[in-house]
Amino acid sequence: MSKPILRHADFAIGKYASFCMSNDGKSFSGNMHPGKVAYEVNPSKELDNEHRYIVARGSKVRGRTGGFIAAKTTSSIYKLPPNSHIDAEFTLVLNINVTKTRPSIITFYYLKWKGNLHPYSSMNEAMMAMKPIEFIRAYFHDTVYSSTLGEAHFTYLNQISGYIWPRLNISFPHAHRDSRVWHQISQSPDKWLDAKYAFPEHKELKHKYIKPPAKVKNIPEHSTTMCCDEVGKASGTKHIMQVDGKIALLFTTRTDDINNGDQYEWMPLPNCPDGQQHFALLLPEQRDTVDKYMYDKGAGYTMHPDTFRQWMENYSEANTGMRYVKMKNMKCGEEANIVGSIDYWIVSCVSEDEIKELSKKCDLPISPTMCINYIDRNIQDPHIPGVVVFRGSRYIKNKGLGQDHINLLFSTILNGGQKRDCQNVKRGSFMNTDRRQTHMASGSMGEVSSSTDHQHCNVKEVEMSLKPFISGITGHAGAQATQQQDVSGQVGIGTVKQAFKKNSGMKVDHLESSGVCPYNLVTVPRPITFNKSKNRKRKRNEQYNESYNNTDHLDSNDCTDEDIGGMVRQYLEDSDSPKLVAYFDRQFKLFEDRLSNDKTKKSNKRYKYPLPTTCAWQLIETPEEYSFRHIQSFVVQGAGVSWDISSDVLADSKIVSGTFYGLLVRHLTSCSLYEEISSGGVTTIMPGMAANAAWGSSGGWKYLKTTGRERQQLVLSLLERHREEHNGALPRSLPQVDIRNYTVTSRSGRVLGLTLPSEAEVATVGRGATAVGRGRGRARSNASRRGAAARRRGRTR
To answer: What is the DSSP letter of 559?
Structure first.
């Protein structure tokens, strides 16, 4: 790899640090770069044998964590102004430990660089002469050092220049801007330890290290059945989840939106009739007043439920004119008099005429606008009357997040909101990991290529020293949620995948479900206290914790855009599944206000297709240990139902999940209420950490729109890596890839470099034209014409 050159670049966003090891290995230091500068790839073919340039990067890591190279400093480097010099220690972070006490104590275990390269003259020479493990043993101290978070800060690193060992997780990603090639920060820190390797003399420390969640395995076949009908084949869904108990099909009409509903927090009320949950709608300042009153009364205080209910209803009536909002309460494992245990709920919205007909032959009428039928087997959405907007059941996985995982998340997420466009987050901590973090890179990372190629986060929101370790946790949790999503019975994701596969112009041969719904989300409680002016003030490690809740909202980005929607529509029209086409027609007709931006030209609508979100909930601590019951619901306001995620439900089911369409129906997570088991008194103050942790996955049009380009970027990275490892030679072939489309060649055919096909060239692929790389289209066209003329002359002879 040639030596990088630091140049001015108007498109480079955010300050970032780079580090360099001295030739003799005795010193390791870096600089904090301002925005508008980036490292350009040196066009010289000569390798830099003297330096190793390394760029700071905290990022997402899947699987085992540990073995990362890092710069150890006494304070966070991200607080330094641009052009600052950084003195650091070169370390190899093995892993971390998180205590179960609160506040948790985070301990880093790491090896220190010895500060020499004897007998070699440079790091490059030493690395070329030794195997990776030999190198680590020779030049890192055998002693495992430890430091707690606060005593030390670790900045995880990516190598962008220097010798590279084979088989180690180190890459040299590039970005192409302004017809020039720039060093690009990769998506994960360099990992210097083999996954199977550990120092034998340090095995006694292994039990202290935090481990990622249970390995994501395939769902057991006995939990699902095959989907072999026309809907299964056309939508590409292979399996559908089955449960032991009955399945409740709840039909309902759309519920009117509440005026200014996004302003109110929904407080669950005690002493509700069976099958119902009532909520009082409070303004944030009213909720603060309630919490402050409960807190000032001291530990163990509870209010009589009737008094509390009267107080909350008075607030709600003053705000909305309604004393409370009534929702049909759905419980996983609920015992129904007619059929026994209900282990799965499906909510489908229908028209007013349809609900009248369904009510005549239903198993259980609820109201003039709601009724229930019971079935024995789970079925896919198109086989159900109306439009399915919610599915709730037990989690198909029996293991979720461990206590150490939750403690680590709790310690890493510093502020409440992690998504810029999510203004409805009110309490607790919300973190939307993976691609959506791209849009919060302010002041934290150097961006060169398009922001959709990155997985950055805001250093003000996340403790960056812990970021790689929570990424392994959230990545596994998101993969589990994706598996649940795929077998739930929804067909939206599969249909989009099939549409991409059948559209040759997109150049996407295989699209995973995680490519359609790539965003992993996590919610945990947050520490809170009050200051003397009675205002809420967020501080860590003090007073009590508040659970996560938000306000009534729609997820406007959880859909395809209209261009991809048109592609999906074309695929549906070409498919052999009238039932699938009819289902999406019903969806568009019932939710036209959500799915169409064209309000006037009725004959020329542009379709959008909603993408589902799947969430899973589990208890952190059992409230019964504190003699309380935790009451909380996930409310689908647009359908008039609530999904019970209270402690008694989770104690029986361990983990429950919900799959819903956040663009179609307004939804929210309610406040938490704690009911003392013996007296029935209630409080809003959480005892200990007796609340829910939640995780899941969701989709979005901004990422999906770049899917074709993402695949091209992956191909380009593979080609670049092959050239670097094989002295500039390209592979002879890649499966289903025309390598010529990614090469810049001279008129003589010599490969000058690599590039992405232009947007215009990508657009022509679906029309049968050949995409060509920039800078060589005219030469290739002339050669093609000459070749065609020669062939014609041959046929004439």
So the answer is: B
Check whether the bond before 103 is cis (ω within 30° of 0).
Answer: yes
> What are the φ and ψ backbone dihedral angles of 439, each rounded to 5 degrees?
-80, 5
Q: Are 639 and 252 in contact (CB under 8 A)?
A: yes
Per-residue confidence band for 131, with pLDDT thresholds at 50, 70 and 90: confident
What confidence score (pLDDT) does residue 88 get?
94
Helix 562-574 to helix 492-502 angle (10° resolution) is: 80
Note whether 652 and 690 are within 8 A (CB).
no
DSSP string, 384-415: SSSEEEEEEEE-SSS----HHHHHHHHHHB-S
- Give the helix ranges, DSSP H, for 384-503: 403-412, 467-487, 492-502
Please report, in angstroms and rounded to a whole number, the separation of the first and last CA atoms in the chain: 52
Judged on CB neighbours under 10 Å (0-12, 13-18, 19+), 211 is middle
Q: How far apart are CA 496 and CA 606, in angstroms?
A: 16
The better pLDDT of the pair 293, 557 is held by 293
3-state secondary structure 570-626: HHHHHCCCHHHHHHHHHHHHHCHHHHCCCCCCHHHCCCCCECCEEEEEEECCCHHHH
Whole-number Å distance between alpha carbons of 597 and 608:
9
* b/e code 73-98 from CB counts within 10 Å (16+ = b): beeebbebeeeeebebbbbbbbbbbb
Whole-number pLDDT of residue 653 = 84
Residue written as token pair 């014609």: 792
**How far apart, in whole angstroms, are the C-alpha atoms of residue 395 and residue 655?**
5
The confidence score (pLDDT) of residue 65 equals 60
pLDDT greater at residue 502 or residue 247? 247
- Whether the CB-CB separation of 741 and 772 falls below 8 Å is answered with yes
Residues near 289 by beta carbon (within 8 Å), at least 6 away in sequence: none
Q: Are the C-beta atoms of residues 610 and 388 closer than 8 Å to each other?
A: no
Residue 17 predicted with pLDDT over 90 = no
Q: Is there a contact between 95 and 65 (Cβ–Cβ < 8 Å)?
A: yes
Question: Please, what sign has the CA dihedral across residues 431, 435, 439, 444?
Answer: positive
Q: What is the mean pLDDT of the chain?
A: 79
Q: Which of 46-55, 89-98, 401-410, 512-521 has the lowest mean pLDDT?
A: 46-55
- Residue 152 β-bridge partners: 149
User: What is the rounded distance in angstroms from the CA atom of residue 382 to the CA atom of residue 365?
Assistant: 23
Token output for 258: 């509440």
Closest C-alpha among 567, 573, 569 to residue 508: 567
d(CA 104, CA 363): 51
Rounded Cα gap, residues 618 and 621, in angstroms:
9
Question: Which tens digits make up the pLDDT trace of 587-611?
Answer: 999 999 998 865 434 444 567 899 9
186, 173 in Cβ contact below 8 A?
A: yes
Helices (H), 28-130: 123-129
DSSP H or E segment with residue 157: strand 153-159
Q: Of 449, 584, 445, 560, which Cα lies nearest the Cα of 506? A: 560
Whether residue 273 is preceded by a cis peptide bond, meaning omega within 30 degrees of 0, is no
* pLDDT single digits (tens) 382-393: 999 999 999 999
Distances 330 to 149, 634, 643, 740, 787 between C-alpha atoms, Å:
43, 10, 5, 57, 70
Instruction: Give the separation between CA 435 and CA 451, rounded to whole angstroms.
Output: 9
> Residue 73: pLDDT above 80?
yes
Q: In what order do the strands lie in the sheet with 682-683?
A: 628-631, 673-676, 682-683
* 680 phi-psi bin (left φ>0, alpha ψ -120 to 50, beta other): left
